[in-house]
From TrEMBL:
<protein>
    <recommendedName>
        <fullName>Abasic site processing protein</fullName>
        <ecNumber>3.4.-.-</ecNumber>
    </recommendedName>
</protein>
<dbReference type="InterPro" id="IPR003738">
    <property type="entry name" value="SRAP"/>
</dbReference>
<keyword id="KW-0645">Protease</keyword>
<dbReference type="Pfam" id="PF02586">
    <property type="entry name" value="SRAP"/>
</dbReference>
<dbReference type="GO" id="GO:0006508">
    <property type="term" value="P:proteolysis"/>
</dbReference>
<keyword id="KW-0227">DNA damage</keyword>
<keyword id="KW-0456">Lyase</keyword>
<keyword id="KW-0190">Covalent protein-DNA linkage</keyword>
<comment type="similarity">
    <text>Belongs to the SOS response-associated peptidase family.</text>
</comment>
<keyword id="KW-0378">Hydrolase</keyword>
<dbReference type="InterPro" id="IPR036590">
    <property type="entry name" value="SRAP-like"/>
</dbReference>
<keyword id="KW-0238">DNA-binding</keyword>
<dbReference type="GO" id="GO:0016829">
    <property type="term" value="F:lyase activity"/>
</dbReference>
<dbReference type="GO" id="GO:0106300">
    <property type="term" value="P:protein-DNA covalent cross-linking repair"/>
</dbReference>
<dbReference type="GO" id="GO:0003697">
    <property type="term" value="F:single-stranded DNA binding"/>
</dbReference>
<dbReference type="GO" id="GO:0008233">
    <property type="term" value="F:peptidase activity"/>
</dbReference>
């Protein structure tokens, strides 16, 4: 699971071969916050802004009563909040500098940042929705997750007895393909995070260079 992340720094957009986003956003994202996402328009990557947490098509107000910021790949097609986006192939990328997960030490949660060892930003697999609320289109998204019980790196996070979950990192050479795939093809992109490319440290010790 992932409920907190550091989005792409605008000055790092060139590392994704993109122009800088033209809208503002915080550098510490939690559910209901606006954040940058990447969509495909005729095979070209484009910036959009979306709320972190899915607002399904039937939503009547901007309200996050349920934890819709992550969705399990095993059940996304059946869940009422997510199945419209999934079945309509509404795939997105979330560019981040780091994600934050709890590591339990002596029974207490300590938040750790997870980032690439080379300092490069990376992109996460997501689905997005566009919901009409009070005659205004509201875009929202949810991060896709896979089981990580046996992942050599991600299994260290979350409560000891809970199932371990991981976000899905889409590598640069598959970004366009992910954004343009169908839901029947999506499972081919459910790749384990390459453990040797990532590291972690306590969130409080991470460099704050926003």
């Amino acid at each position: 699971m992932c409920a907190n992340f550091k989005p792409l720094k605008k000055s790092h957009a060139n590392q994704l071969e993109l122009f800088e986003p033209t809208f503002e956003y915080k550098m510490d994202i939690f559910p209901s916050d606006d954040c940058p996402i990447i969509l495909s328009n005729e095979n070209k990557l484009e910036w959009r802004k979306a709320k972190f947490g899915m607002l399904p098509p039937y939503a009547k107000e901007i309200s996050f009563k349920y934890a819709t910021y992550n969705t399990r790949t095993e059940t996304v097609q059946q869940k009422r909040s997510f199945k419209h986006a999934w079945l309509n192939n509404q795939f997105a990328l979330i560019p981040v500098e780091a994600i934050y997960e709890p590591k339990y030490i002596n029974g207490k949660a300590h938040w750790y940042g997870i980032f690439r060892k080379d300092g490069q930003p990376f992109t996460l697999a997501a689905i997005f929705e566009e919901t009409l609320i009070d005659e205004q289109k509201v875009r929202s998204m949810s991060l896709l997750t896979i089981n990580a019980d046996h992942h050599p790196f991600m299994k260290q996070f979350h409560k000891p007895d809970d199932e371990k979950r991981s976000v899905i990192v889409i590598p640069d050479h598959l970004r366009i393909d992910w954004l343009n795939c169908t839901h029947s093809e999506a499972k081919d992109f459910f790749l384990n995070m390459p453990a040797n490319e990532f590291a972690s440290m306590p969130k409080a010790e991470m460099k704050n260079d926003d």
